[in-house]
Design goal:
This protein is α/β, with parallel strands linked by helices and 231 residues long. The chain is 51% helix and 12% strand. Strand 3, helix 3 and strand 4 form a beta-alpha-beta unit.
């Protein structure tokens, strides 16, 4: 059973989400919160698998709550609710550790599938939407220590040339199958490389890997990636 915490300052929306979620035999709503601070208390007490998080709330907003949850309760994954597919609030929540975002206009079946996907450890962001968000907000991202060209970030230096190639493809929004076709390797090999990239960048999913790539200077706006030997 996948447990879910609903966080939204609008009671009617929480009620609607509850009705949709609890119609599924494998999903259970274990609690609700109307702001980020209450959400933190609820997560500490209930340990939900997934937190369905609105980002625009009075008091502690969903961005700060997501940041705190990622640090204090990493086993509870956050799925952000947003109004627009390219939204600065949703992007800030992704940078803070959310595993994906979903439009509030999503169909009921999309909501329950997104919850299941996040609970399984996979991110819920269309790769090309993430790329569009990154290109839009990249000028405002901090860069990693020393920059890519200096090669000072140990996470950068830990990547092999092939892993850097895979990260470049991830930043372009390619799926594992598309990466395998481009690099002429098997999907199993790509999956292994993706796992290595996540481990070496110390992130938990593809969304966080691509965001980290921009912040560390591994990938520049437009998708060009630093690789060993490039200066």
């Amino acid at each position: 059973m996948t447990t879910v915490l609903l966080v939204d300052d609008q009671a009617l929306l929480r009620m609607g989400f509850r009705l949709v979620i609890e119609s599924e035999p494998d999903l259970e709503v274990v609690g609700e919160a109307s702001d980020g601070r209450v959400a933190l208390d609820q997560v500490a007490a209930l340990r939900p698998d997934v937190v369905l998080m609105d980002v625009r709330m009075p008091g502690m907003d969903g961005i700060e709550a997501t940041r705190r949850l990622a640090l204090e309760h990493p086993s509870s994954r956050v799925l952000v609710l947003t109004t627009f597919d390219v939204d600065e609030y949703a992007f800030a929540a992704l940078r803070s550790g959310a595993s994906g975002f979903l439009l509030k206009t999503a169909r009921p079946e999309e909501l329950v599938e997104a919850i299941r996907t996040v609970a399984s450890g996979t991110s819920v962001v269309a790769p090309r939407v993430l790329r569009r968000m990154l290109d839009l907000f990249a000028p405002h991202l901090p860069t990693g220590t020393g920059g890519a060209g200096d090669g000072l970030d140990p996470r950068l230096m830990a990547l092999s040339p092939r892993e850097t190639d895979v990260l470049r493809c991830m930043a372009e929004g390619l799926s594992n199958a598309e990466i395998a076709e481009r690099l002429v390797v098997s999907s199993t090999t790509v999956k292994t490389h993706v796992g290595n990239v996540l481990a070496k960048l110390d992130v938990r999913d593809r969304v966080q890997a691509v965001i980290a790539a921009y912040e560390y200077g591994l990938v520049e706006r437009g998708g060009e990636a630093w690789s060993p030997g490039r200066r």
